[in-house]
Design goal:
The chain is an alpha/beta fold and about 400 residues long. The chain has 15 helices and 8 strands. The strands form 2 sheets. A 6-stranded parallel beta sheet has the order 1-8-5-4-2-3, with helices on both faces. Strands 6-7 form a two-stranded antiparallel ribbon. It binds 5,6-dihydroxy-NADP and zinc ion.
Length: about 400
């Protein structure tokens, strides 16, 4: 096993009605003025935003608001948020929504506390030295941004989707009421479940000598999400299933499932980010569309690990060798994706990728030949091209 640091400073407030505690949680942060940041309307329609405002009013908090965050959140709104927060002297950001809203809040937080262009961090030109404190009220179980150190932003100029990670951005608190996720469209619920599973799978497929404990947590987490995702396809208002998935979403991406590992592979995420940037697909769906292609391409580099996954997570009977078992596990995962109406190739998302676009995806994903991806098997630009091509469908 590898040495590790585990840092999860986020206070979790979980359960029915916990959003009504938001005002008091913000007040405990000792801030002067709050930006309430939200998405494209679901929190307005559900009445959640009004309840949050009432909770802030009751706690005597001064606040302003900025909505309009879209999935694959845009850099232009981040700039707008930074200008607004500077003008209004905001010192705390409350994100009410999903990963996109939280990531946009984190980017605004970086822009408020560091000089220069905030995109520089996402462009890997320099490191942030601080971030405004962030609080979250989560409305979708998926990205795990409510406890993670990451933020993913899309720059409209060139449609580049890039992530940036630093512990400064880990939220101070996360309010998680599973009831809030019951209004999600089925597709978003399923897409979120895939993302949650993938945050653990990216870490599970590594080149480490793994810890039994971390493997056990990881395997159980993935199985639990699969089981409850299936339930939610027919019972969207099943509280316990919503709760299992919601807590899994946070634990999957707060670092717990990488303890003792080398950090994991993460190629599927990087491959998906370009799909999200160019075609604006839902993140989890994009992951499901490329995962099988990635897994088949790299499994020979670590067949025993894929075989362990196949048996312990997917419950398949071992074949005569690890490679055979590994393949059965990959097929079983694709069957699961289909069972919750998730894609297993890019065409399943209604996108016909042209040859030029395959090359554009590979160029962007490899930072125009400037980086490789992954640890299971290091992927060059041409490998990325091949994986996209095999995922085309
Ligand atoms: O904008 P509104 O109207 O709220 O609608 C959203 C959006 O259309 C809707 N929604 C959210 N909660 C709802 C709801 N609709 C009805 N009822 C509710 N309770 O769902 C749609 C998706 O929301 P979004 O925030 O985009 O979802 P998600 O949490 O999956 O976030 C996706 C983004 O996070 C990034 C992804 O790349 C993508 O840009 N990621 C962020 C990570 C991180 N910061 O750690 C890690 C992930 O790997 C991921 O890359
Ligand atoms: Zn993800």
């Amino acid at each position: 096993m590898e040495n590790f640091q585990y840092y999860t400073p986020t206070k979790v407030v979980f359960g029915k009605g916990t959003e009504d505690l938001t005002g008091e949680l913000v007040k405990a942060q000792g801030c002067r003025k709050v930006l309430v940041h939200y998405g494209s309307g679901s929190v307005v329609r559900s009445g959640l935003l009004d309840r949050i405002f009432r909770s802030l009013d009751a706690a005597g908090i001064d606040y302003i608001s900025l909505g309009g965050v879209v999935p694959n959140p845009r850099l232009s709104l981040v700039y707008e948020g930074i200008d607004l927060c500077k003008k209004e002297k905001v010192d705390f950001i409350l994100a009410v929504g999903g990963g996109s809203v939280i990531d946009s809040a984190k980017a605004i937080g970086y822009g408020m506390t560091n000089d220069g262009d905030v995109w520089d961090f996402y462009d890997r030109k320099r490191q942030a030295q601080a971030c405004l404190p962030i609080g979250t009220v989560l409305t979708i179980s998926a990205a795990g941004s409510e406890m993670s150190n990451s933020s993913v932003i899309t720059k409209e100029d060139g449609w580049l989707k890039r992530g940036y990670s630093s512990d400064y951005s880990r939220p101070k608190f996360a309010v998680m009421d599973p009831v809030l996720t019951m209004t999600l469209p089925k597709y978003q619920t399923a897409s979120g479940c895939v993302d949650i599973m993938m945050h653990t799978m990216e870490r599970y497929f590594n080149q480490s000598d793994n810890m039994e404990l971390t493997d056990g947590i990881s395997e159980n987490l993935i199985r639990t999400v699969m089981k409850n995702a299936r339930i939610l396809m027919t019972e969207p208002e099943n509280y316990n299933a919503r709760a299992e998935v919601m807590w899994a979403g946070s634990l999957s991406h707060n670092g717990l499932t990488e303890c003792g590992t080398d950090g994991g592979d993460w190629s599927s995420h990087q491959l998906e980010h370009e799909l999200g940037g160019m075609f604006d697909v839902a993140h989890g769906a994009g992951l499901a569309a490329v995962w099988g292609s990635w897994a088949r391409y790299v499994m020979d580099a670590r067949p025993e690990r894929f075989a362990q996954f196949a048996v312990n997570v997917m419950g398949v009977d071992p074949a005569k060798d690890d490679a055979g078992t590994a393949l059965k596990g990959i097929e079983a995962m694709e069957d699961f994706y289909r069972s919750i109406d998730m894609p297993v190739c890019i065409r399943d998302m209604g996108i016909e990728v042209t040859e030029d676009q395959l090359n554009e995806l590979a160029d962007k994903c490899s930072h125009f030949g400037g980086r490789t991806l992954g640890v299971v098997k290091k992927l060059t630009r041409d490998d990325m091209y091949q994986i996209y091509k095999n995922a085309r469908g």
